[in-house]
Amino acid sequence: MEGALSFAVETAQNAFKAAKEAPTWAKAALAAAALMALREAYLSATEKSVEGEVCLITGAGSGIGRMLAKSMAAGGAKVALLDINEAAAKEAAAEIAASGGHAFAARCDVTSHEDVAVAVAAAREALGSDITILVNNAGVVSGKPLLETSDRAIKRTFDVNVIAHYWTLKECLPSMVRNNHGHVVTVASAAGWVGIPRQCDYSASKWAANGLAEALRMELRHMGATGVSTTCVCPFYIDTGMFEGVRGSWLPTLPILKPDYVVASMMTAIRRRTPVLNMPAMVNLTPLMRAGLPVAAFDWCCDFLGITKSMDDFAGRSIDAPGSS
Ligand SMILES: NC(=O)c1ccc[n+]([C@@H]2O[C@H](COP(=O)([O-])OP(=O)(O)OC[C@H]3O[C@@H](n4cnc5c(N)ncnc54)[C@H](O)[C@@H]3O)[C@@H](O)[C@H]2O)c1
């Protein structure tokens, strides 16, 4: 024991001596690494649990919403799964119930405030409590050049991707504010930081969702609702089928994301009350690049990284496809 202790002290003294004698750049790197380790330790020590929370997720019948519902239930939350595709939502809820979780599912077209009000009331009744975590996840994409996009698709994109958030907020936020306890998660997109060809409607709707999340965070802060957190999620393309056919960047740090990575990161961000989650980390550079570079240089970076052409072979779930929602 004594030997181990003196070995540890000697190692620490040697490391300290080596650090003292290191060149300035190495000292700076060491200090940054130490700060990041401290930050990580603090964040993981202050993580909240989702156990006992009541989480409502829109668009929970497939993709990210469905997987997040399962993760929430596995963490001990009761889950309300809303989707315009009733069969998919019910199937996901049955899977959660079969593995011991507590879930409720309902058909809800989030573009209708009336539908949302009815579904939220039914969820409250079925789960026995107010909603404490709201995840605005339902989303649609048309994926066409602006001049080929129907009027209906443009309106639908805004209705689902951003206007619907107001309806769910109006139904779920009052009890969160009253109890000073809750969390609002906005699933926006990295397309809410940068404009992409064939996304004139989608990108704009996600910029709007970003703006709503930002203003809401500031408003809650201003009114002293310190117990209500917000998380705005901005992922690059995810391999869920919604954006089938898109090309990721050639850059290894900007790949098409795996859904399980996205959902695990979202769970961590919710537990840590992270206000903005950009995925992958490289997306954090976008606002900095926008601010620091002339527009032409920023556009050239998008070309160079392959972003500009990323939608050229889009074959995803277009709302302009016959029979779509
Ligand atoms: N897949 C990606 O590459 C990607 C990237 C960034 C952000 N996002 C965002 O993530 C979210 C989830 O996307 P996903 O990849 O899981 O897609 P997805 O198509 O698998 O899931 C979207 C769900 O929303 C539902 N929905 C559509 N319109 C609805 C309506 N009017 N009312 C209720 N539900 C409705 C659909 O039925 C579907 O179950 C979306 O907001 C999307 O914009 C996706």
TrEMBL record:
<dbReference type="InterPro" id="IPR020904">
    <property type="entry name" value="Sc_DH/Rdtase_CS"/>
</dbReference>
<dbReference type="InterPro" id="IPR002347">
    <property type="entry name" value="SDR_fam"/>
</dbReference>
<keyword id="KW-0812">Transmembrane</keyword>
<feature type="domain" description="Ketoreductase">
    <location>
        <begin position="53"/>
        <end position="236"/>
    </location>
</feature>
<keyword id="KW-0560">Oxidoreductase</keyword>
<dbReference type="GO" id="GO:0016020">
    <property type="term" value="C:membrane"/>
</dbReference>
<comment type="function">
    <text>Catalyzes the reduction of all-trans-retinal to all-trans-retinol in the presence of NADPH.</text>
</comment>
<keyword id="KW-0443">Lipid metabolism</keyword>
<dbReference type="InterPro" id="IPR036291">
    <property type="entry name" value="NAD(P)-bd_dom_sf"/>
</dbReference>
<protein>
    <recommendedName>
        <fullName>Short-chain dehydrogenase/reductase 3</fullName>
    </recommendedName>
</protein>
<dbReference type="Pfam" id="PF00106">
    <property type="entry name" value="adh_short"/>
</dbReference>
<keyword id="KW-0521">NADP</keyword>
<keyword id="KW-0472">Membrane</keyword>
<dbReference type="GO" id="GO:0052650">
    <property type="term" value="F:all-trans-retinol dehydrogenase (NADP+) activity"/>
</dbReference>
<comment type="similarity">
    <text>Belongs to the short-chain dehydrogenases/reductases (SDR) family.</text>
</comment>
<keyword id="KW-1133">Transmembrane helix</keyword>
<dbReference type="InterPro" id="IPR057326">
    <property type="entry name" value="KR_dom"/>
</dbReference>
